[in-house]
Amino acid sequence: MRKLLAIIISLAFTATFFGQNLPDSLYFSNAIKINFHKYKKESTLAFILGNTERGQFLFDSLVQHRLIGTTFDNLTFKKNSGSRLKLSSIEKPMLLLTYASWCVPAPGEIPALNKLARKYGKDVKMVVLFWDRKQKMKKLARKFSSRITVCYAHEYYKNDAIIVSALKHTLGFPTMYYLDENRKVVDIRRCGVYQQSSRENYSKSYALNYNAFLDGLATILVNKDVSKEHLETK
């Protein structure tokens, strides 16, 4: 009975909190602001109480009922190489991952992403955005494949305020944004499948991360069958 009541409350919350119909042309940065403080309060309370299932439910509801279908803002990122990347210049689907140098990726996470970049780099643009000063992320940036564009943004850098406000101060990190060729949001997920760093667990962690990234790529690589690419996790 108690479990049934919890389900009813959750459904009611979703209907009232996320149930607004949004225009297709609404930008991500505007959509995320609607009742966001209420979402943040509910989500923070859930994780403080150790109710990760509730926290994930709130995140998934926000994504499904509020953010999918919106247009990702035409942001401009600073590349690790020194040039700039304007999102409107990308003419294919994109995977954007947000990281920070002090947030250590899960074992096998970067190698799994690199392998997928080598396989699907011609079909999808992969971008990693570090919430850091350039100097702090340079060492970690070298671990990524040359097929992955590594960028950075920081509160203290000129013109980064919009990027930080829209992404870092809303859904935080690490987060994966899957966009189609028109910058429409197809899906948003948390990234990093945690596994202990012992040698016997590395292979499983690598496979779990590989499969997690692959499942997300399947939502934007609509003309490719990636289901056969999944790795065994035993």
UniProtKB/TrEMBL annotation:
Which Pfam families does the UniProt entry name for this protein? AhpC-TSA
Q: Name one GO molecular function term.
A: antioxidant activity
Q: Which InterPro entries does this entry report, sorted A to Z?
A: AhpC/TSA, Thioredoxin-like_sf, Thioredoxin_domain
Domain of life the protein comes from:
Bacteria
Q: Describe the location of the Thioredoxin domain by residue ranges.
A: 66-222
Q: Which protein are we looking at?
A: Redoxin domain-containing protein
